[in-house]
Design goal:
170 residues, alpha/beta, Rossmann fold
């Protein structure tokens, strides 16, 4: 895998400090790239969490993931529900009490939340390349990023939050 120095440096810091790395950010921002690098070079197990069916208990599902033995890199997590739920669906299926419980659990496991971000145009271009020319409008990408900012601001008092720009790692 060919990643830029900023990603290698981020991964080195994360690997020497944390046991659970929760990677979050808008689609196309580089979560999978970071997760794959952590797995290949630092022995992390990668768990990708796509949107769960409506009848799944999200707290129970993510509690089981976060407490998996070993070093974990979560490529998307319960935090996505707090972002994409309100922006793309009728609202979040996860209550804040559940999100705070999961955040506290991640902190107890030696975890960190990593907020990956990039300029909306960069994200748009990555999505267009990755999805055969189809990508979200810039205004939707901006709304998603604003929601991530709000969610991370609310979780910051409960766990270490790292923000990292991925613009230069395309």
């Amino acid at each position: 895998m060919n990643v830029g120095q900023p990603i290698r440096s981020l991964c080195e810091e994360l690997a020497t400090t944390y046991n659970v790395v929760v990677l979050e950010g808008c689609d196309g921002v580089g979560k999978t790239t970071v997760a794959d690098h952590l797995a290949a070079h630092h022995g992390f197990q990668v768990v990708h969490s796509s949107r769960s069916p409506d009848n799944v208990d999200l707290v129970q599902r993510h509690r089981a993931i976060i407490t998996t033995p070993g070093r974990l890199a979560l490529d998307r997590s319960y935090i996505s529900e707090l972002v994409y739920g309100p922006v793309l669906h009728s609202g979040s299926r996860l209550a804040w009490s559940g999100a705070l419980e999961l955040t506290a659990l991640a902190a107890q496991q030696g975890g960190v939340l990593v907020h990956l971000t990039a300029e909306p145009r960069c994200i748009h271009d990555r999505l267009r390349t990755r999805q055969d020319g189809d990508a979200w409008e810039l205004s939707l990408i901006e709304r998603i990023q604003q929601q991530y900012d709000l969610v991370f601001a609310q979780l910051d008092p409960y766990i270490s939050v790292r923000r990292h720009r991925t613009d230069s790692t395309a």
